[in-house]
Structures are given as C-alpha cells and as structure tokens.
Amino acid sequence: MHVLQFAKRSLMTLAAAAVALSGCGSESSAPTVPFNPAGATADLEAVNTTFGSQPFTSFSALSVLFDAALGGAPLVSASAAALDVRGGGTATGLQAAVARSAERIARIVPRPAAAGFSVSSAAISGEFLGKTFVYSGGSYAVSTQTGAPANGVRFLLYAVDPVTLLPAEPLNQSGYVDLIDQSSGTTRVAEVIVVSGTTTYLDYRVSATSTASSGRVTVLGLITDGSTEATFNLRATLTLDAGLTLTYSLGVPERDLSINLSMTASGIAPDPNTIDVTLEMRGQNGWVRLTGQFIVNGSTLNVAINGKPFATITATTGAEPVITGAEGQPLAPEELDALRRVFEFAGGAFVAFDQLLAPVGTFVSGA
Fold first, then answer.
1. Among 132, 248, 255, 297, whose CB has the most other CB atoms within 10 angstroms?
2. What's the distance, CA 102 to chain centroid?
3. How far, CA to CA in Å, does 262 sit from each of 88, 198, 201, 268, 293?
4. Is 222:203 a contact under the CB 8 Å cutoff?
5. What phi-psi label fits residue 200: left (phi over 0), alpha (psi between -120 and 50 degrees) or beta?
6. What burial class does residue 227 get, using C-beta atoms within 10 Å of its C-beta: 0-12 exposed, 13-18 middle, 19+ buried?
C-alpha cells in the first residue's frame, strides 16, 4: 500500500544516505565508534523489516474504515490512498503535510469557539462494546462473532488488494485489530493491538490531553515483523496560536539504534510559514544528523556525519534541490541522490502519525 511503501522508502533512503555519507568527526558530542556505512545500512534494513509484515499492511489500509463503522466521522480520509504523500519530500509538500496533521490533531482535541482546548468526554457508543466487525460490501459491519474485548471492539483484517487498498476477493482473513478504551478522568486513551496467528505485530496507545491553551496527542508503542522489534514514541502539541510541534522517536533495542526527528511549525493556516527540522540517527555504527528550516519559498538543510559538517541542501519552490559539500565542493552522483531523498523522511513522520491515528478518532475524540 502507499503509506507502507512510503515508510519503507524513507527508511531505506536513510540507509542509502548512510552508505554515501561515510565520514568521521572529532566534536565532543560525536560517538566514540567510527562511522560504519555497511553497519548503519544493516541497522536501517532491520528497522524496515518491522514495517513489512502482511498484518501491518492490512491494518494500514483498512483502519481508515473503522471510525465510520463506529458511527463517527473519519479522523483521516476514509480512503487509504489519501495518505499517499508523493511530493512530501519537497518544501511545499512538507508544508501541506504539516497543515493536514495540525487539522487532524485539532479534531482530537477540539477548540471550543469561546474557550480553550478541551478533550471530549464522549466515548464509543455502548451498543458497540464487545462487538466484532467484519468487512462486507465496501465497509465494516457488526457481526455475531465473539472474542472482542468487553471495553472495546474488534475488527477483522484481510489480505489487501494492492491496487484498490481494499480486501481482495475472495476474502482471506489475516488477523484482527482490537481497539480498547483505556480512558481515565479527562484523558482519552485508546489502545490498538494487531494480531495474526499467535503473534502481536503492533501494540500502541493513543492519548489526548488538553489545557486552556493547547492540546497534546501522544502515540506510544511497539511494532514487529515477528522477528525484529522496534519501539516508537510520537508526540504532537498544537497551541492556540496554531503552532505545531512534533517529535518522533524510533528505536531497535537489540541493535542499540535510535532515530529521532523533531519539527516545529508556525503559521499553520492555511499552510505553515516556517518548519524547523532536526533529524538524528545514532547507534553502534555512528551518528548522522540533519538540521534545517523549511520556509514558504524553499529550505536550507545541513548534514553532519559523526559531528563533522558534510553537506548543505538548499531548495526553492518548484526547483530541484542544490546540494554541495561542506566546503562548497560538488558531491558524487550517489551522494546527491541519497541526500535528495532524505527530504522524504520528514514527511514520513506526519504520515506515520496519521496512519496510527486513523483507527481511533471515535475513541479519543468521541466524534
């Protein structure tokens, strides 16, 4: 599916960048181990496999249908194709992705007209609790099957047609998703568990909290392909002046690997004026760091390897990025290609946020 393939491209792009951007530095903050391009590539390939399971593919495609089945309006478009983010690696594409995410987050922590943010006290309708939903005729419907959690619902998953992003005919059940209401007090919390056979492929919680001036959405959990496990922590804060801050951490404990991305956007409506970005990959094979800013007319990004400046990327709207070495020298073709694609990872963080929020709008917002 489009979203899953984008996530794969983003991770493999970083692997390609790691191979191309071999170097070392002497700054005090640099890791003690030398940068190992082959090892970094293997690390990122391991991360990539965690997003490659068939149950996760089905979940990504079908979860956009869950809200409608529960009687609410979809938090994310009811079409999985709407999460395709081709062009998200450009300055204008990233701005659009930020604006979409801000809108969706605001729907989870709505802002009353004459007050600050507040989290809805409504939860999933009691008529659906403990029910199992099956796919039929283009949507999900309540069935007589048992097994759903008493304080939540269950949706069956099926093998997905890669073209339509809907269950392939004839239906072939591949697992299920349990959506569980874990709310407490004024904090809305939904747990999402994806299971196929005896393996739990995805288990995470989405929580929404608010104050008089801001709302926060947190997504925390783990994902596996049945072999390699990765943990993730996504946090988004939207303030009354329409500023959005997103932090995205992904780790593979068994490989001592972490990827951290942070973004701050201002002037969201109708598009963000400025997006500040910091991306780091750290592990037993070295350290890659990208910092920069997207503005209305373009962007400037700086790349360092193990703390040593390596390259600068500048772009203007409608033009290809211009990439030069730290001393102004041209880079090799494979280095240029790798750095152009690094743009995509930033947009991928917003896609991941949308993807994980898709099935829980009714639970968290009471939509």
1. 248
2. 14
3. 16, 35, 26, 16, 12
4. yes
5. beta
6. exposed
Beta strand 298-305 with 308-316 is: antiparallel
Cα(64)–Cα(78) distance, integer angstroms:
5
Q: Read off the pLDDT of residues 206-217 as tens digits, 9 standing for 90 and up.
A: 988 777 777 888
Note the pTM of the prediction, 2 decimals: 0.80
Residue 283: in which H helix or E strand, if any? strand 274-283
Rounded to 5 degrees, what angle do the CA atoms 19, 25, 28 make?
135
In whole angstroms, how far apart are CA 221 and each of 6, 254, 271?
Answer: 20, 16, 30
Number of domains in the chain: 1
Q: CA–CA separation, 158 vs 170, rounded Å?
A: 10
- The residues, any chain, with a CB within 8 Å of residue 220's CB and separated by 6 or more, are 204, 205, 207, 232, 233, 234
For 230, the domain range is 2-365
Contact (Cβ atoms closer than 8 angstroms) between residue 60 and residue 41: no
Q: Model confidence over 1-43: pLDDT tens digits?
A: 333 333 344 333 433 444 444 444 444 454 457 777 777 777 8
Of the candidates 266, 215, 220, the one whose C-alpha atom is nearest the C-alpha of residue 236 is 215
Q: What token pair was written down for 64?
A: 């956009």
What is the number of H-type helices and E-type strands within the chain? 7, 15
Q: Are 150 and 128 in contact (CB under 8 A)?
A: no
Strand-pairing partners, residue 229, are: 224
